Amino acid sequence: MIDLFLFTTEDASELISKVKDERMLLQFAGPAYHFPLTEKQLETDLLDENRTLFKITDGDHHTIGHAQICLKENTFLLGRILIWDENNRGKGYGRKVVQKLLEYGFSHFDKETAELNVYDWNTGAIECYRKVGFGIDPETQSEVNIDGETWLSINMKINKTNFELQES
């Protein structure tokens, strides 16, 4: 069982301790954060009225990750999704988290579409998002550079009707 709880400043130190290096931070948060992750960066997000931050807990109420929703003009963006213990990856938690984020977003915001960005090499995450019903938007891409490598970020979208059909 997976639950989402609102993230508070008291949760910041645990999240910060899980982000081990610049590559992990870039994969998790995109280029908006700078390594090392700090409470100040998280506080900026907490103060942003267009962002909702969550801690992710398992059935035993242990915090296992972090996620955010960011309101955009026509959509809401799922982002900064991190299940931090690699032993918890591949167990379906990601799919459940994305479903919970979509349930929250579609029930709290007057938006018909949700989107997210993912690096093209992150095939496990892409497959997870496809299983939930996301499709790739070939019109929206961006690149970042790290350690002499170029990472291509692809955009995926799902509309409310398709999500509701997946859930029924």
If you had to describe this structure to a student in words, what would you say it looks like?
With 168 residues, this protein is an alpha+beta fold. It has six helices and seven strands. Strands 1-2-3-4-5-7-6 form a seven-stranded mixed sheet, with helices on both faces. A hairpin with a 5-residue loop joins strand 2 and strand 3. Helix 4 (93-108) packs across helix 5 (123-132). The longest helix has 16 residues, at 93-108. The model has no long low-confidence stretch (mean pLDDT 94).
Q: What's the topology here?
A:
Layout: E1 3-6, H1 12-18, H2 22-29, H3 39-47, E2 51-57, E3 63-71, E4 76-83, H4 93-108, E5 113-119, H5 123-132, E6 135-146, E7 149-159, H6 160-167
Parallel strand pairs: 4-5
Antiparallel strand pairs: 1-2, 2-3, 3-4, 5-7, 6-7
Helix pairs in contact: 4-5
